[in-house]
C-alpha cells in the first residue's frame, strides 16, 4: 500500500552501473529525485547524462544496481516478476519518442486504445467505449479515431500515444523524449496537451527530454548531470509592484542528503575553481573561494547579503541563485544569471567532468 505522505516517485542515491567488455559505466551515480503525487516534472540533461537510464528503471524495464527507487508505493529494486507485470499494466503509462513503440501501425487510434484497455483489464463493453471517447476527446484527436498511425501527423500520433498511455488509468505517466521527432510548434502543443492531462486527471507526470523549451511548459525542471540531479528550475507567478501577474523562474542547486552539490559549470570556469576550494560559513550563506596555490585568501564580507528569495519546500534544501522573469530565464547574463536548465543539453557541456569544487 502507498503511504499517503510518500511521494509518487522517490529515488534516493540511485546507482546504475553497466558492464560491457570488462568496462564499467556508471550511468547513475547516486541520483536523488522526489516527485509528489500530481506533480509534472521535466528532467533535462546532456546526451549520456543518464536520463534514459533513469526512465528505464522507473518504467520497470531495468533494475538499479543500488539505492532506492519507489513509484506509487512499488519498490522497484525488490519487486518480483508478477508485481512488475501488474506495475507496468496498471500503475504506469509510457510515451516513447518513436511512435512505432507507442502505437500498433495496423490498428486505428480507437483500436490502439481498446487494446491497451483490454491488456490492463480495466473496462469492458460500453464503459470501454466511453473511456476511449473521453480520452480521444481530452487529447483533441476524437476526429481521428478511425485513422491508423500512418494516416496521422507526428503531433496527432503523439496525442493518440498519450491517450493510449492513459488508457489503463495510470497513477504515473512517464515520457521519454515525447517531442523528439516533432517541430517546435508541434512540440509546444503536445507539451501543452500533457500539461492539460496533468491538470485535469491529476496524473503524476515525468518527462525526460533534450528539449530546452520544456521548462516553459512545466512548473519544475530538474537537470541531470553525470548521473546526478544537479540543478532545478521552479516557475511560478507573482504580482509585480503594479499588481500585474508575472511569471518567475528561479534556479536552485540540488543538495543531497550528505551535503554534496554540483557547482554550475559557469561558476567553476569563471573563478577557475580546481580540485579544492575554500569554504566559509557565514550567518546566512556559504562562501566558496578558489583553493589552489597562490589564490588570494577569502575577503571579509563587505555588505549585508540580499534577502533570500522565497523558495519551494521541496527537499533537500535548495539554494537560490536568482529570481528572474520567466522570459529572461533562459539567457545567461554573467556569473549570477540563472541559466536555462536545458543549456547544458548541448553535447559539449555534458561531456565535461563534474566539478570537484561543489561543497556546502
Ligand atoms: N546498456 C548499456 N550498456 C552500457 N552502457 C550504457 C548502457 N545504457 C546506457 N549506457 C551508458 O550510460 C550512460 C547514460 O546513458 P543514458 O542513455 O541514460 O543517457 P541519456 O542522458 O539518456 O542520453 P541521450 O539523451 O543521448 O539518450 C552513457 O554513458 C551510456 O553510454
TrEMBL record:
Keywords recorded for this protein, A-Z: ATP-binding, Nucleotide-binding, Transport
Pfam families referenced in this protein's UniProt entry, alphabetically: ABC_tran (PF00005)
Entry-linked InterPro entries: AAA+_ATPase (IPR003593), ABC_transporter-like_ATP-bd (IPR003439), ABC_transporter-like_CS (IPR017871), ABC_transpr_LolD-like (IPR015854), MacB-like_ATP-bd (IPR017911), P-loop_NTPase (IPR027417)
Organism encoding this protein: Agromyces soli
Classification lineage: Bacteria, Bacillati, Actinomycetota, Actinomycetes, Micrococcales
Domain ABC transporter: 12-251
Keyword Calcium: no
Cross-referenced PANTHER family: ABC TRANSPORTER RELATED, IMPORT ATP-BINDING PROTEIN
Stated name of the protein: ABC transporter ATP-binding protein
Transmembrane intervals: none
Chain coiled-coil ranges: none
Top-level taxonomic group: Bacteria
MF annotations from Gene Ontology: ATP binding
Ranges annotated as biased composition (Pro residues): 305-319
Xref: PROSITE patterns: ABC_TRANSPORTER_1, ABC_TRANSPORTER_2
Region called Disordered, residue ranges: 287-360
CDD domains per record: ABC_MJ0796_LolCDE_FtsE
SMART domains attached to this UniProt entry: AAA (SM00382)
